[in-house]
Amino acid sequence: MNPTIELLKSHRSVRKFTDQKIPHELLRELVSAGQAAASSNHVQAYSVIHVTTPAKREQIAELAGGQGYIASASDFLVFCADMKRPTEASDRTGANVVRGMTEQLLVASVDTALMAQNVAVAAESEGLGICYIGGIRNNPQAVSELLELPDHVYPVFGMCIGHPAHDPDVKPRLPVEAILKEDRYTDDREQVDAYDDEMQRYYGERTGGTKDTNWSKSLGPLFDTKLRPHMRDFLVKRGFEMK
């Protein structure tokens, strides 16, 4: 493997950080690297909120389900899908701007995810650790109010960044054979069964035998309830009407 592929395949979520701070100049470089990601039609439909006030970080940690590392990481970023900036820029040229289209929501969400992943890889290339925080969507309205987000902007996820205070194992991924399909969609049950066996061993070894589960079983909480049913109404109220 070349160093870039090796770095990508060594990713793991870091949830314990040292007290060492990241220089602000480096943080700006990480965000700049994020901006180099592909963007649909060069819309760049994202904004990043660098949350520096300790009280705000504590509030977000609580809103996200009690994730204390939001407060303890050197830096915490909230990545926002932003259709306010590009639609207003288009407005100023005299264009007849139509807002609230489903495709605009998809473009902004995808742009934000691509940009954030560039930030994550850039941070890891500097020896830093990161952890995505999807839990901010548990209470997206409260997070939006706390960060004073305007209409047509919504918080997609957060990211903790800092110097790792632990070295967690890389979590196994699905076999490439389950993901990479030739010419058509094919059944991958055999690969999933093998992967479940691998994940069963992984969880058992990581927890000293106290966690008895696998990949398929771990998906239960995501699919046996209506996960975050508030999101559709929230997005519509933010101006993402999904027309």
TrEMBL record:
| Keywords of this entry | Flavoprotein, FMN, NADP, Oxidoreductase
- Is GTP-binding one of the keywords? no
For this UniProt entry, which residues form the secretion signal? none
Output the Pfam families linked to this UniProt entry. Nitroreductase
Q: Does the keyword Flavoprotein apply?
A: yes
InterPro entries, A to Z: Flavin_OxRdtase_Frp, Nitroreductase, Nitroreductase-like
Q: Cross-referenced Gene3D superfamilies, in alphabetical order?
A: NADH Oxidase (3.40.109.10)
Nitroreductase domain mapped to chain residues: 9-163
Q: Which domain of life is it from?
A: Bacteria
State the PANTHER family in the record: OXYGEN-INSENSITIVE NADPH NITROREDUCTASE (PTHR43425)
Q: What is this protein called?
A: NADPH-dependent oxidoreductase
Q: Which organism is it from?
A: Halomonas halophila
Taxonomic classification: Bacteria, Pseudomonadati, Pseudomonadota, Gammaproteobacteria, Oceanospirillales
